[in-house]
Specification:
The chain is an alpha+beta fold. Helices cover 61% and strands 9% of the residues. The strands form three sheets. It has a five-stranded mixed β-sheet with strand order 6-8-7-5-9. It has a four-stranded antiparallel β-sheet with strand order 1-2-3-4. A hairpin with a 4-residue loop joins β2 and β3. α1 packs parallel to α3 and α15 crosses α19. The longest helix is centred in the C-terminal third of the chain and has 35 residues. The chain is globular and about 75 Å long. It starts with a helix and ends with a helix.
Length: 575
């Protein structure tokens, strides 16, 4: 079966790559024929009941690598290569040092080592663990492959007459108008722990650095570009936004990898990656505990203790993981303190995450340890919108929603575990019927996600409703604040897509403020932690009572799962 899994993964990657090279009219039937052919091969070599797991791995692998092997991005690359060939360009030469990609590779191996060890040495009886670990490794490897391709193949050109930068790489090329440039900064060296694809969170970094030399950081809507040009001072002068400003050298100092502060960050960020972004810590822990023949009550006690510890350090973990900085003065600080005072959470801390992504979050297990984090892009919205977002997050802190969601997670897990324990003999019978076992496992996972979504969405609509009471203009200000955030997200995402894909003018642009298709509404209402933004905005503008909002939300969750032709009422009546 291990050989079959390797073949399945390689074939899925090959099919994704062929879809990247050939037109969609040919690639779609090729993928279908390839997938059916591989499935039939597995059936012939094994049995029909052994097909489900390899096919699911093949699907996940294909989806993960299709994000890299994107046909539209290939077309964009060919267009840009032709443009460079006929334009007056200046090549932005970069310093290149093999140690740069070596460090990235070592960090990838280090973070994934627990998963790899479990995958190699866990017995076949732990097939569910091995399946989850394999999926995690596949999803981790895909963006790292993109990073390797950028290091090996990325070439950067400046077009002075058109005032643009063109980046041509193997899988993703970009055309960046300098009129969109928000800021350009210098850093003494690449901050690997910030820009490595494994460590990124609430950020959109594109790492084109090729050496441990001076870095130019170019901020555009939706994406931040990192380069190591051979002549950074000259290019910095060319790309500065305000040529009339007094030149003041501000170079951010990046500590080397062996510096104690960098090692401390690596420990925090590594712990964040394996516990929050990944699953290797949990699967590895369970594997070790089971291998040591730990009694069930010992496993439960250990997991509960570890969960409490993670909850206690959640705020510090996210602060370090995002490299956030504490806000202690300025207009944003004053706005936040006024909102926190109205909410009765004056001890709450405010942090800024340097990121072009529009988002904010609340963390901390209680009011005393509460922390609210905003991205720098979000902080640049209007004062009214920033107040609305802060009020929403303040209610999360006041109502201890982080703790509520974590308690819900552990209670739902305990209920599932208790049922497995009580009906263990019946479940054990499924071991002889692999398909039924996998169906049972997937039903449990889906039920788990739906229950968590139910609790999380309830806390979100409560934060909207109660947060509006902290604002001068009430529900209207909260709705308009969310609308401004959504429109900013739309603009940022569309800009980022325009940089790296073919012309989007003829394509329909998705919007967070508009009611989408039935499938997306169903997914958002049923599985995601936030209800759709369009629904939240509409509900706030109607200024309904809390009881009516809850009732409308529950009805909307049900009706969102029905196809459009089954929904006779309009959005205003049904959602």
């Amino acid at each position: 079966m291990q050989l079959i899994m390797v073949i399945v993964i390689l074939v899925a990657i090959l099919l994704a790559f062929l879809s990247y090279l050939i037109p969609k009219k040919l690639s779609v039937p090729l993928v279908v024929v390839g997938a059916i052919g591989l499935t039939m091969y597995i059936v012939v070599r094994h049995s029909f009941f052994d097909v489900l797991l390899p096919v699911s791995v093949m699907l996940i692998t294909y989806i993960s690598f299709s994000e890299i092997f994107d046909r539209d991005k290939w077309i964009k690359k060919e267009q840009l290569k032709k443009k460079v060939a006929i334009s007056n360009v200046q090549m932005v030469d970069q310093n290149k040092d093999g140690r740069r990609i070596f460090v990235d590779s070592c960090l990838t191996i280090l973070i994934s080592s627990i998963s790899i060890l479990c995958l190699l040495f866990a017995p076949e009886t732990y097939i569910v663990f091995k399946y989850l670990i394999g999926v995690h490794l596949i999803m981790m490897f895909a963006p790292f492959l993109n990073r390797v391709a950028d290091y090996l193949f990325a070439t950067i050109y400046a077009l002075p007459e058109e005032n643009k930068i063109i980046i041509i790489s193997l899988f993703e090329s970009r055309e960046l108008p300098m009129r969109d440039l928000i800021d350009v900064k210098k850093e003494s060296a690449p901050d690997v722990l910030r820009i490595h694809p494994i460590f990124t969170f609430l950020s959109e970094h594109r790492d084109y650095t090729k050496a441990f030399t001076t870095v130019l950081r170019l901020s555009f809507p939706g994406v931040t570009i990192y380069l190591t040009p051979s002549n950074p001072e000259w290019w910095y002068e060319q790309w500065r936004k305000d040529e009339n400003e007094q030149r003041i050298e501000k170079v951010k100092q990046v500590y080397p990898l062996w510096h104690p502060k960098t090692i401390k960050r690596l420990l925090w960020k590594g712990y964040f990656v394996i516990t929050v972004k990944g699953i290797s810590a949990y699967t590895g822990l369970l594997f070790i505990l089971i291998s040591l023949k730990t009694p069930w009550y010992g496993i439960v006690l250990f997991i509960l203790t570890w969960w409490l510890f993670n909850l206690y350090i959640a705020d510090q973990l996210l602060i370090t993981a995002t490299d956030a900085t504490k806000v202690t003065e300025g207009e944003l600080y004053v706005i936040a303190q006024e909102i926190f005072s109205r909410a009765g959470i004056t001890k709450t801390k405010l942090y800024l995450i340097d990121s072009p992504v529009y988002n904010g979050l609340a963390t901390g297990m209680n009011i005393g340890k509460g922390t609210i984090m905003l991205t720098t892009a979000t902080a640049k919205l209007s004062k009214s919108a920033v107040e609305a977002i802060l009020a929403h997050e303040a209610i999360h802190i006041k109502k201890r929603d982080v703790l509520i969601n974590q308690l819900a997670r552990i209670i739902i897990t305990a209920v599932i575990a208790l049922n497995v324990y009580l009906f263990f003999d019946q479940i054990k019978l499924l071991a002889d019927h692999f398909v039924l076992l996998m169906i049972f496992i997937n039903i449990m996972m889906i039920a788990f996600i739906i229950c968590l979504s139910l609790i999380a969405q309830w806390t979100e609509i409560r934060a909207d409703y109660s947060g509006a009471k902290l604002l001068a203009e009430g529900s209207t200000q909260m709705a308009e604040g969310l609308r401004e955030l959504a429109l900013a997200q739309d603009g940022s995402i569309n800009k980022a897509l325009q940089y790296s894909t073919v012309d989007l003018k003829s394509a329909k642009e998705n919007s967070y403020t508009e009611r989408g298709s039935w499938l997306f509404r169903c997914i958002e209402f049923t599985f995601l932690p936030h209800p759709p933004l369009y629904w939240r905005i509409h509900t706030l503008l109607e200024n309904r009572s809390w009881r009516k909002i809850k009732q409308t939300w529950l009805i909307a969750r049900f009706k969102a799962c029905l196809p459009d032709f089954c929904q006779r009422k309009s959005i205003h009546d049904s959602e």
